[in-house]
Amino acid sequence: MVDDWVIPILGYFAVRLAGVAVLARFADLRGTSLTSALQAWDGKWMLAIARYGYHDVPVTQTDANGIHTPDTAFAFFPGYPYLVGAVAKLPGVNTYAAAIIVSAVAGGFAAVAVARLGRWCAARMWQADDEQARTTGLTLMILFAAAPMGIVLSMAYTEALFCALVAWALVGVLERRWLLAGITAMLAGTIRPTGIVIIGVVMLTALLAALGYPRGKTGDDGIPRGGWRAWVAIVLAPLGYLGYLGVVWHHTGTPSGWFDIQTAGWGTEFDWGRATAKFVNYTLVNSGEVAPVATALVILATVILIGVNVAARTPWPLLLYGTLVTVSIVASSGLMMSRARLLLPAFVLLIPVANLLARQTTAVRVTALTCAIALSSWFGAHMLTVYPHAM
What we know:
391 residues, mainly alpha, 67% helix, globular
């Protein structure tokens, strides 16, 4: 219990408190407040929907073009703001506090699942002993919490809740706990459009298990491969995502309603990576600003990590999920400065890095992780208080 839950949660909050502390100092020096920074950009949309619902969001909330229409709010999926709205009904809890509470609690659950994934992979991929596997799991959790835009895990944003659901869905897949996988994938589909990726991975792995692939009724550990639970997971997984698209279809009168809103308001559409390639090329050659250059490097590093995971033979459900998340972000147009944040759910691609660090001496590992935490804390504070554009 302590090793599996308490230590990952305490480690996660230690990393996140460091990031928030640096942000608070930056906010003070930049003449703003920590409260304002933690609800910046999309956070204002989350709080507005939580307070007023989709139909009564104030007209001051606009899309990337500065436009507000009766459809604009529907670009944001309902899972996170509706949960925030429910928590805000508790005595003495306002909407802002509810948003921070939801993100904090979800982040703790995410930390446990991420550490569990890292431990599982170390034990099976590299035949690590129990202590080494736990070290890999904790290292992966710290790398996740100290991602370049890890600050959003502490904000009024969807990332902490989404990553928690995704991580537990992947735990369900690897451990063949199909009801866990199906339910968490279904909920993830109500949080972010990227939920379609974990939905697809859960449905594919559950289908293969239900059909008896790989051959045999049980795995080496004696856990049933499929059964009726796998079929239930296949049915449950897409319900949240399809349900919200259906709601927007009813609101707009067209089955492509959500996609139309997203394209019109934020310029997001699948373009085979042309916009991203143009951004990376231009930024690395011409930009003198920290934020765009760092964002371009994060994009390149994430793509490179896919190759690293192929070479490391990361379990295919994790590799498939991480690759498809990366493709869905990199191959789409839209606001490029949000890419470091949007790639955060591809945390599974850090598994080989976590394993490498776990095999180093304690001094080397602590030094590397401390540097990662420091850079993440500074970069998140810079993006929220110094860089003037949306992230």
